[in-house]
Design goal:
Elements lengths: L5 H17 L3 E7 L4 E5 L1 E3 L2 E3 L1 H11 L5 E8 L6 H10 L5 E4 L5 E5 L1
Amino acid sequence: MTELNAEDSKIITLARSSRARGGTAEGAAVRDETGRTYAATDVGLPSLRLSALQVAVAMAVSSGAESLEAAALVTAEEAVRDDDLAAVRDLGPKAPLHLAAPDGTLRTSLT
């Protein structure tokens, strides 16, 4: 299993906190090229459905981020959805995407 650095552990913690605070199915966090972090949960409105990672990436972009250093997704799901990976890759082609269980246990890291 991948050994996480302190900054990657931090975004998993932020994603877990967002998920718990919002009582949602998933939480995500991303870190941009300047070290700023953006945490989000999934959005499920009648007219708008976005995953937590899509929201976190959109927050980074709308705040002026030019690239991502890393991303984290906390969910009960066993795998990362293709559209979530695509959203991260749009802004961070080489950014690791860490998938963690709700308790914070790292399941996998996609690079």
